[in-house]
Amino acid sequence: MTIASALLIAAVVVAVRLIPSVRWKAVVYALPLPMTLALVASGAPVDARHLLGLVLLVGFFAVVTVLHHRWGLHILLADAAAVAAYLLIALPLAGLGRLSFPLVLACVCLLWAVVGARRPPVVPGDPPRRPHLGHVLLVVGAALLIAQLAGVLRAFAVTFPYSGVLVAVETRRTLPSFTRQFARASLAMVAFLSTYYLVQPFGAVPAAAAAWAAHLLVAAVLVATAGGHAAAGPDRDGPAPRPGVTPGTGPGR
Fold first, then answer.
1. CA 14 to CA 12: how far, in whole Å?
2. Which of 31, 99, 168, 209 could form a disulfide with 48 if both were Cys (CB 3.0 to 4.6 A apart)?
3. 250: DSSP letter
4. Over the stretch 129-187, which tens digit does the pLDDT of each residue have?
5. Contact partners, residue 169, CB within 8 Å, separation at least 6
6. Measured between alpha carbons, how far is 23 from 38 in angstroms, rounded to an integer?
7. How many other CB atoms are there within 10 angstroms of residue 137's CB atom?
8. Is 49 exposed, middle or buried, given 0-12, 13-18 or 19+ CB atoms closer than 10 A?
């Protein structure tokens, strides 16, 4: 993983921090920027294991959500546990032989129809927060450290949550909603991988271009059919205000 890759990962995290809408945070995070860079730079072909990796990526956020929001585990500990779960599942799968791409694709699409097709409810967003220089440097440094795992994951390195580890921290207040939104947005990533798989005999660059076209088309359809709009005004990622308490008037505000 190069410095450019780490900077790209950091850019995704900073962008998620700046975007107020939970839905658009998920849409931006689902953009296959690090995935494209990894595939084109390595020249490795897409296979069925990449689809399994995408399932693990969505599962990563689900694990963090359960551990942090339901079990009350600190967000950093929940993050670490979810990374460990990803590795424990991915490492044995990385050594699997050739799997049927159409069969795995059908299973993934069926899983999405059960989990991701339902429209998540609209929740309040988060006011844009400008990252200071120290935060940006911390994100870049963390991305460089996380990226060292790429060598042992093989195909699953493409879908490893390099930026997801940091995005989970940034979205911790609305992580359940973000996870549902990302599960829905992941269909565009399925389209990306499927198109790349079909076009890759013609080369990595044409495959990436066609895959991006498919991703953007599916993402546009998902956004257009999401329905609902967040309430006007500066929304916040925090918990809902207590009955009888006007937002912004509590202690310390």
1. 6
2. 99
3. S
4. 555 555 556 666 656 666 666 666 767 888 888 888 889 988 999 999 999 999 999 99
5. 75, 76, 79
6. 26
7. 12
8. buried
